[in-house]
Amino acid sequence: MKLKVKISKLKVESFFKRLFTVHCSLFILFLLFTVHYSLFTLSGCGYTLQGTATLPFTAVKIGRIENKTFEPKLEDKFQKALADELIRNGIMISKSATHVISGTINDFSLKPLSEKEGVASEYQVIIKARFFLTSPDGKVKELRNSGVFTVSFPGSGNIENIVAAKEQAAETAMRNLASEIRAGIVYSQ
């Protein structure tokens, strides 16, 4: 009787070892397939992994940012947003850099999107801008996607809340613009 139990126990152990080996093999195949499939689909669609080694340059100077609107301090908000975005993505800001970003903020408008009982309840901030990258050899290139940026925000309550929401929407638009400028620099090569 003990022999039968021992043989039975060995069969069970052997079964589980084979089952574990098969599952490990299947899992490894699944991982390999997933990695290969992901790399194939991402590279096929034009996506690339960007690191600091693939950046076109490591430092840039932020030149003159001109605010041609009546909205005060937009150029300051944009310079801060652009510096944060570039540094976060591996491009340092330096006064001695040979590449220079400059541009103009041409339009800042606030438009009502919807109204409730004759009072605007949602607004839209629209910012139009053009930015350029000057290379060390003096070539000036317009950066892509530096056109129109729109951010909407709710506008109910007292005037202080609406002004605060407008300020936050303007800062969000500046961050979006800075992100597009950075993309224009990194992916233009």
Q: Look at the structure and give the CATH class of the largest domain.
A: Alpha Beta
Rg value: 28 Å
Sequence stretches where pLDDT stays below 50 over 5 or more residues: none
Number of helices: 3
- Please bin the fraction of helical residues: 40-55%
Give the tags:
189 residues, alpha/beta, Double Stranded RNA Binding Domain, 2 domains, six-stranded mixed sheet, 3 helices, 6 strands, 29% strand, flat
What is the structure about, briefly put?
This protein has 189 residues and is an alpha/beta fold.
Commentary on this structure:
The protein is of the alpha/beta class and 189 residues long. The protein has 2 domains: 1-47; 52-186, Lipoprotein like domain (Double Stranded RNA Binding Domain, 2-Layer Sandwich). Strands 1, 2, 3, 4, 5 and 6 form a 6-stranded mixed beta sheet that branches. The model has no long low-confidence stretch (mean pLDDT 77). Helix content is 46%, strand content 29%. The chain has helices spanning 2-44, 74-88, 159-186; strands at 59-67, 92-93, 100-116, 119-134, 140-142, 148-154.
Secondary structure elements and their pairing?
Blueprint: H1 2-44, E1 59-67, H2 74-88, E2 92-93, E3 100-116, E4 119-134, E5 140-142, E6 148-154, H3 159-186
Helix pairs in contact: 2-3
